[in-house]
Amino acid sequence: MAKPNARPGAAGATAAKPRSAVAAWFDHHLQSLVASLGRMLRKPWATLLTVGVMAVALALPLGLWLVLENVARLGGTVEQSREVAVFLKQGIDPARVDTLATTLRARADVASVTLRTPEQGLASLREASTGVYADAIAAVDENPLPHVLVVRPRGDERTLADALQALPETDFVQHDAIWRDRLDRWLGFGARLAWVLAALLGLGALLVVGNTVRLDIQSRREEIAVLQSLGATDGFIRRPFLYLGAAYGLTAGALALGLLTAAEFALRQPLRALAESYGSRFALGGVDPLQAGLVLVVAAALGWLGAGVVTGHFLRQTRA
Known about the structure:
Elements: H1 21-42, H2 44-77, E1 84-88, H3 94-105, E2 110-116, H4 118-128, H5 132-138, E3 148-153, H6 157-165, E4 170-174, H7 177-219, H8 221-229, H9 234-277, H10 289-319
Antiparallel strand pairs: 1-3, 1-4, 2-3
Helix pairs in contact: 1-9, 2-7, 2-9, 7-9, 7-10, 9-10
């Protein structure tokens, strides 16, 4: 009687290798992501409402922040607001004026010094004047204007203005530090307001995602109960809902960026025309790629967090 061949695999059958834990973990993450996107697509109207509300909640503080950033950049480009005009006394020798300008240029707190002679000042005044004022200026025989040193400060213009006022050659000093201080205070208030709005509306976006995920959980209570009876962990059950919340947040962040981009295109041309009417080349700035990426990350994190809070609360109730 022939002995049976006991060697495993002799019949050509090959035992399948078990998948590693890492591969199974990756497969479940991928499956959870695809299933979450599928649930969003199966409910387009509900998804659009959720994403739209989140997008508006994200776009409002982002829009305010962009406005403040552009106002700050506009204030930084209006260098005349920081220039200090030093009107010298009448009758000063031009050589002494040149020496004084050279001395001021050597100061550490001075960025540049521009000398305007009385002739240049009178010519500018004639170009800017019309009507009766132009006739009056044309009738002037002797130039009454003094030498003017336009000093652009490197630091605080108020300290420099006080030092320039103390010079013996100075008649009076003109600068607009009050306007600058007010602008800085308004920008500081606006930045604080933007953070408050971001916190409140971010909380609103988190609650919107949480409520949407809660409704999805309620519709799948029986499925979750079956998974729990089979020994599924909380992480296994929570994972699809986390991806669902992150997908809501990411889509809302992209829509918010789209809304801001559309607003920028709508306002760019009128603002450029307004700036050109004042002789400025200021152009409206938008969201750069790094900032856009940060917005998407924060929006996805809000969605993930909202889904995690709601799902964790539900699982704690069912395990109790």
